[in-house]
């Protein structure tokens, strides 16, 4: 699993989806204009940019552990308070924000409960904590088809997706309850991305982030080509444009 890659490559792979998901996520979390908001695991700034548009840069902060992604976010949003560090240790005082949001992050942190406690700590009483993750299996077609293709080539890896955390309805809400948050609400948000063709789609996978990137970077050329062929077959061997969907589970709560 890797997120240590150039920001442009991350955006080409996942930014197409996260930039569409971000405004829907912010709307569901009822973030008002002018609110002080923290983006936990801000990456290259897809969610951060939406928050800046709504609240103004001086009201928005973000934290990201990967230097390459962090620098892209800082360059895009130079007036926001963007810091490097893990989500488990947020470098802000108690009750610093009206809301703390984590978009497509919880599956990849070391200690989700500690992240939840930290988000709770830095939000004022009555403020909002929210998170979202792609649903398991076909929630994100881009990666689901990839792992199906991998499983056809390497049967011992057929269950990779089933082991990913916070990919089922109710998982995030359960975490919020565990740390004592209340007034929970959940929903599912959907986006779609169009590719000019299969070659463009596959090129984003070759430079992917997360588990997909971690796998494809260590695969031999022969195995990579076999997976590519299987992926193409699973799509029905399209000759033109390809549209893939993403469905994210979202849960918000009050401090």
**Which strand order do you get reading across the main beta sheet?**
3-2-1-4-5-7-6
Biggest pleated-sheet summary: 7 strands, mixed
User: How far from one another are the termini?
Assistant: 32 Å
Task: Supply Rg.
Answer: 18 Å
Using DSSP, what is the number of strands?
Answer: 7
Quaternary structure annotation: single chain
The helix-and-strand class reads alpha/beta
Number of DSSP helical runs: 9
Strand residue percentage: 15-25%
Which range best describes the helical content: under 10%, 10-25%, 25-40%, 40-55%, 55-70% or over 70%? 40-55%
List low-pLDDT spans: none
Mean pLDDT: 93
Structure summary:
The chain is α/β, with parallel strands linked by helices. It contains nine helices and seven strands; from the N terminus they run αβαβαββαβααβαααβ.
Describe the structure.
Helix 1 (7-28) packs across helix 2 (46-55). With 255 residues, this protein is an alpha/beta fold. The relative contact order is 0.17. The chain is 42% helix and 23% strand. It has helices at 7-28, 46-55, 67-76, 112-122, 141-153, 171-178, 198-206, 210-218, 221-234, and strands at 37-40, 60-64, 81-84, 97-103, 123-134, 182-195, 242-254.
Notable traits:
alpha/beta; seven-stranded mixed beta sheet; 42% helix; 23% strand
Helices and strands, with pairings:
Layout: H1 7-28, E1 37-40, H2 46-55, E2 60-64, H3 67-76, E3 81-84, E4 97-103, H4 112-122, E5 123-134, H5 141-153, H6 171-178, E6 182-195, H7 198-206, H8 210-218, H9 221-234, E7 242-254
Parallel strand pairs: 1-2, 1-4, 2-3, 4-5
Antiparallel strand pairs: 5-7, 6-7
Helix pairs in contact: 1-2, 5-9
